[in-house]
Each structure stands twice: as C-alpha cells, then as structure tokens.
Specification:
Low-confidence stretches: 281-292, 294-318
Largest sheet: 2 strands, antiparallel
Helix content: over 70%
CATH superfamily of the largest domain: CHAD domain
Structural class: mainly alpha
Radius of gyration: 23 Å
Strand order of the largest sheet: 1-2
CATH architecture of the largest domain: Alpha solenoid
Mean pLDDT: 85
Number of strands: 2
C-alpha cells in the first residue's frame, strides 16, 4: 500500500512522532517481561527513531517538558547498555569461540559468562527504570501530545520542501564527515559518522512515510553504510573490553577480532565508493564545495507532488 502524502509540515510531524511513540509503547511489555534480544533491539530502534523525528521537527513542534531530551537520552542509554552486551555475547559465542583453542577457549567461555551476568544486571536496571515515574511521565506526555499536538507559532509550510531540505542537510553532514574521507579514521570518528548516517536514514524514511516518495536507492546506500559502521562499532567495543585485561592477554581472540574488523573495513570502503558515485554538484551557477545526494533536490520532489491543471491534463490526453 502506498504511503500517504501529507500536505503540511504539521501533518507530517504529527504522523511521524505519533507513530514512533506508538512503536516505543508496543515493545515495552516484551522488554519488561522477558527482555529477549529481539524486543530490546526493537525498542532501541523505536527510541532512536523518535529522537530523530524530534530533531527533524524541532522547529515545528512544542513538546511537554517530560518528553524532551533528558528522559529520552536516559532511556536510549539504558537500552543501549543491554543491546551492546547482547551483540558482544553473540559475537563471542557464535563467531569467535569456535575460532580459538586450548586454554584461551576456556577463558572465552568465562568471558561470555561474565558478559551474560552483566547483561542480566543491565536488564534489571532497565526494568526498574521502566517502572519509575520518570518513564511513566514520558509515556503519558507523548500520548497526550499525540492526542492534542502543540506546534510553534508560524506558518504551516509544505511538507515536501521541508522534508527534502531535512534530508539534504543530513546527507551533507554525512558526505562532509572526516571519516568519509580519511584513510584511517579513529573508532570515535567512525562512531560519530554512524550517528550521522542513522539520522540520514531516518530522515529518508520519514520522507517516504509522509510524502510518498521512497528514494529506494539512496535509502539502500544509507542502510548499507549504517550496517557496516555498526559492525565495526561492535568489533571496536569488543577490542576495548579485551584491552582492559592488558596487552597480550587474548592473543588468539585479538587476532581473530582484528581479522574480522579488517574485512568489515574493506566492505565499508566499498560502500563509501558507492556513496560518492551517487553524489554530484547541485545545478547552480557557482559550483558547490560539497556534493548533494542524488535525486534529493527540492524542485523535482515538489513537481512530482503537484497535481496537473485541467488544461495540462487535456493537453496530455490529446
């Protein structure tokens, strides 16, 4: 079924924010009851998308105090701690444990057990947090805003131009990021780039959801970038954990993690090349220093959304 085409920014903001708040609530029960990796991941994605939506529409919406940044950031961190441990346990158990032998294999088994215990404690903290007034107020505030949305003063402009501009800004941040050009970016730079790519991907998704334009090729590139950067981040976090035990403490495991990370880095370089293959200077008299993401110019987006006049329809059918 085709996505609805929403005419104004306020309509788009209300639809996107309400949907993300509903998704957050939908996964809450499963996270509280069992805390399996799947629901934890789904709820974390929902809070990320909600925060991204609020960032895109920050100049348009007026939120209750209980639904602003601090409580959302707190919830994202709680979910992130559990999710990072889920990924670490899966990497160790499924990918790296079969690749080591001898006494180090037994030590990896113990490391998995330690991570599992730490994960249990992190999930218990998350469950307690979801039962506290801070989260209940957040949930109530979001539901109240969805029922009776409040917006900033000013003209309610067209959604197509607003959303295309939001996507273009996000794409420029990605394309100009140092980690998109450096030969050996740091782990911190790659993590920062990953955040920028996620914001671009979500902005593209919001554009498709509200304006009925999919931009499938651009979304695919952004998704691949996000996936490769996420896998690199998982390996970097595991490296950091192994480094806590000192240099040389994990000779086999460290070598396997380094080998896996090198393969991921090569895949990221391939996606980076695909990104720049899809950029070109915007049509203007003076060339821009930074490329625009292909097909995201505002004018073509608007033209495809404008209904032709009666005279134009008659001419076309002639």
């Amino acid at each position: 079924m085709a996505a609805p085409t929403l005419t104004t920014v306020r309509e788009a903001a209300r639809a996107v924010i309400t949907r993300q708040a509903r998704e957050l609530r939908r996964h809450e029960r499963a996270v509280t009851r069992a805390g399996a990796p799947g629901p934890i991941h789904d709820m974390r994605v929902a809070i990320r998308r909600l925060r991204a939506a609020l960032a895109v529409f920050h100049s348009v919406v007026v939120l209750p105090k209980a639904a602003r940044r601090p409580p959302l950031r707190w919830l994202a961190r709680q979910l992130g701690r559990v999710r990072d441990l889920d990924v670490r346990i899966a990497l160790l158990a499924e990918q790296f444990l079969p690749a080591v032998a001898g006494l180090e294999a037994a030590r990896v088994d113990r490391l998995i057990a330690e991570c599992t215990a730490e994960r249990h404690r992190a999930h218990q903290r998350l469950r307690k947090g979801l039962a506290r007034p801070r989260y209940r107020k957040l949930r109530t505030a979001l539901a109240a805003w969805a029922r009776r949305a409040a917006f900033a003063d000013g003209e309610d402009t067209g959604a197509a131009r607003f959303m295309a501009d939001a996507v273009d800004r996000a794409a420029r941040r990605v394309g100009s990021h140092d980690a998109m050009h450096d030969r050996h970016p740091t782990a911190a730079a790659l993590h920062d780039l990953r955040i920028a790519v996620k914001r671009l991907r979500y902005a593209l998704d919001f554009h498709a959801d509200t304006c009925g334009l999919a931009f499938d090729a651009e979304r695919a590139v952004a998704r691949d970038l996000q996936d490769r950067l996420g896998e690199l981040r998982d390996h970097d976090l595991l490296f950091a954990r192994l480094a806590e035990d000192g240099a040389g403490a994990w000779p086999q495991l460290s070598a396997r993690v380094a080998e896996g990370r090198m393969k991921l880095w090569r895949r990221l370089l391939q996606v980076r090349r695909r990104w720049f293959a899809r950029t070109r200077p915007a049509p203007t008299v003076a060339p821009l220093e930074e490329p625009r993401f292909v097909h995201l110019e505002v004018t073509p987006v608007q033209l495809r959304l404008v209904e032709p006049s009666r005279a134009e329809r008659t001419r076309r059918s002639a």
